[in-house]
Amino acid sequence: MQLHVGCAMWTHKPWQGRFLPHPLPQGERLRAYATWCNAVEGNTTFYATPARSAVESWARQTSPDFRLVPKLPRSITHERRLAGADEELRSFLDAIEPLGPRARTLWIQLPGSFAPADLGALAVFLRGLPGAYRYAVEVRHRAFFDDARSAGLLERVLAGAGAEWIPFDTTELFRSPPDSDAEREAWAKKPRLPRRSRALTDRPIVRYIGRDDTARTVEGWRHWVGAVTEWLREGRSPTVFVHTPDNAEALALARRFHDDVRAGLPEVEPLPEPMPAEPLTLF
């Protein structure tokens, strides 16, 4: 029984020397991160298709059961809105091929303007994707959360492709006014949407963002500890990504979430022992 947890990135300045060794060469940073967490969001691929050599390095630094969930480039999802992007898609799929089983699921993050009226484009796009991967879709248009008919239509489109719906839970972030510059920036950028926690497949994925205050972040994820525990008992294999506005403690928080689930479900496989942030000495 395995629960995957991770963060939005595998390198972050506030982690250096605290959680992860510093300095580390580029080709060792993901390896160090992977001793803390067994998954990571593939945000870097959203902004540009990576060089195949970079992806080969990611594969060398992680075990086959590590989960890296690459996002389709925004040129496909946001600029072309899933239409006429065959060349970009081919380039992306070729680049990530070295990840092998680490990239079992590909992430399709759609813009907030992608509305129920656009579901036809999503259905056509999903039907044309290769069967070698599974797919998970993140939507941000309010109608998918407020209108039962729109939500049902989206679920039917996803079910037709065996795809998952990724919720981005920002309810704790917006529970009370921001207390820091990072929280104020998150308030301006993150979607304010109702929480949704219905899994469509055996591999649900959750994005959760808390606050820069650790206690509030932990309090806000209690719902997800219960939901993830139930999914595991049902035989599902969930992945949870933990964010905070400044992400300073996100690496330790992701492990803490795993610990909270495992406290009630000891059968869950433990995470690896973290790499020491400082070199071991004899004295």
Structure overview:
Helix 9 links the parallel strand 7 (168-169) and strand 8 (205-209). Helix 6 (119-127) runs parallel beside helix 8 (148-160) and helix 11 crosses helix 12 (250-264). The protein contains twelve helices and nine strands. It has a six-stranded parallel sheet with strand order 3-2-1-9-8-7. A three-stranded parallel sheet has the order 4-5-6, with helices on one face. It starts with a strand and ends in a 19-residue tail after the last helix. By secondary structure, it is an alpha/beta fold. It has a single domain, classed as Protein of unknown function UPF0759 (TIM Barrel). The mean pLDDT is 95. InterPro entries: DUF72 (IPR002763), UPF0759_sf (IPR036520). Pfam families: DUF72 (PF01904).
How many separate domains? 1
Strand order of the largest sheet: 3-2-1-9-8-7
Q: Helix proportion of residues, in percent?
A: 25-40%
The biggest sheet amounts to:
6 strands, parallel
**Portion in beta strands:** 5-15%
Looking at this structure, what is the CATH superfamily? Protein of unknown function UPF0759
Rg calc: 19 Å
Spatial gap, N to C terminus: 39 Å
**Helix-strand sequence:** EHEHHEHHEHEHHEEHEHHEH
Instruction: Give the name of the CATH architecture.
Output: Alpha-Beta Barrel
- Class per helix and strand makeup: alpha/beta
Question: Could you list some keywords that capture this structure?
Answer:
alpha/beta, TIM Barrel, 3-stranded parallel beta sheet, 13% strand, globular, DUF72, UPF0759_sf
